[in-house]
Amino acid sequence: MKFFDKLYISMLLLLTVALAVTEYTVVALSLNTALENRIDNSLKQHQLIKYAIQSDLLSASQQSTVGANVVADIASQTSESMNVQLALGSNNSRYIYYENMDIEVPTIKAESEEVSFITVKSDDGKKLLVMASSFESSNYNLKLITISDITPAYDDANNMQAKCMWIFMIVISAGIVFTSIFSAIITKPIKELTRAGESFSNGDYTKRVQTIGKDEIGEMGQVYNNMADTIENKIRDLELAVKQREDFTAAFAHELKTPMTSIIGYADTLYQKDLPEQEAKAAAEFIVNEGMRLEALSFKLLELITLKNNDFLLEEIEMKDFLQDIKETIKPNAAKKGVRMFFDFEPGYVKIEFDLFKTLILNLIDNAMKSGSDTVAVLSQAKGDEYMIAIVDHGRGIPEKELRRVTEAFYMVDKARSRKEHGAGLGLALCQKIAEIHGTRLDIRSREGQGTAIRIKLKLAGRGDDDE
After folding, report:
1. Which of 105, 426, 141 is nearest to 296 (CA)?
2. CATH 3.30.565.10 segments of the chain
3. Hey, what CATH class is 311-467 in?
4. Do 140 and 71 touch, CB atoms closer than 8 A?
5. Which of 200, 325, 332, 386 has fewest C-beta within 10 Å?
6. pLDDT of residue 464
7. For residues 325-334, average pLDDT
8. Does the pTM of the predicted model rise above 0.85?
9. Model confidence over 204-219: pLDDT tens digits?
């Protein structure tokens, strides 16, 4: 059974039971109250009749001897004057007066002046209250029985019950509509959650639910949306990781296949044919170039694997001296490529692994010199608790859509240029890994045709021990 059906039936059942119990209680209390009033009035009337008969008998006994006929006449006069049905019996259980009665007088004990009563039903369906009591007067031990019609009390209760039944039907009809609407409102967010979950299980990770209100169901919807966002992000990350792995495998295979094919082809040509010296030299040069690219590729891969599997000790280094060493190292290669270098250093102590961080900076400067820029700037600045190093060029730049992937292994923006310069698309991947070892990341900002700026932010460590 669905939750909607459970909620709908439960609410309707609760409303029905509550209304039925309420109406039954109201009708029962009303009937009891009416009967109590009727009994009280009948009791008062019974006592009044008894006192009237006693008074008349006392008056009659003072004038003459009271016989059965006199007692019967007094009872008859009292019955007519007070418009009540009564019976008057003697001490030998013989009725002295018994007329105009709707029923046969039932057997009812009346051994004292205390009034006893019972309810009986007449042949025509009336509800009658029979009261009886005993008293002594004029040497007679008499038993007085009076009858009161209490049918109106039951009629009023039946009328009230009929009205309550109509009210019950109207309220239940309205309740059916109300509980249906209310159940639909309550279960609508749950149905939306169900549909969203089904869509999610079918691969639609964009489905979300609309949260209304701050109740438990609204909180549940918000929790679902947060969960869906997290799962969607994780799935995107996994899809990206799978794509990167596929790209890595394909690129690695391609990077190995292309130079190996060329090397084997040119080597076979040299082996099979007698080539002129110039052609043989060109073939050998191509073999050397492709071999150098394979060597660079193997070293880069080895470095990446090594960085993943080792912990490195970071030492406190004065960055001005470190960057001065970078400047001296890069000067011959810059002069060879005709690139003017601009350096601006600020002092500051930072914890680094010297050789790895030098590899990082040299790789970034080498990429800047290959960008087609005629000038490359290496800048540093100590501000607050951070030390920033920036490598800036004015070369061809990186397209915006490529920026997110330039640090992936084997990813090359310009594959033809990279292979020509013995590149394998591992430089920035290696730099990113080294940066992560130092607790930072590469901040790459570039515009196509305008150049690239790569910033690295490190935590300042203060002065070295020698200067304290």
Report:
1. 426
2. 311-467
3. alpha beta
4. yes
5. 332
6. 44
7. 84
8. no
9. 767 777 766 676 677 7
Sole residue written with tokens 């270098």:
341
- Give CATH 1.10.287 domain extents, the chain: 233-308
According to CATH, what is the number of the domain 233-308? 1.10.287
Per-residue model confidence as pLDDT tens digits over 360-397: 888 888 888 888 888 999 999 998 899 999 999 988 88
Residue limits of CATH 3.30.450 in the chain: 14-157
Range among 3-7, 308-312, 451-455 rated most confident? 451-455
Predicted local distance difference test score (pLDDT) of residue 286: 76
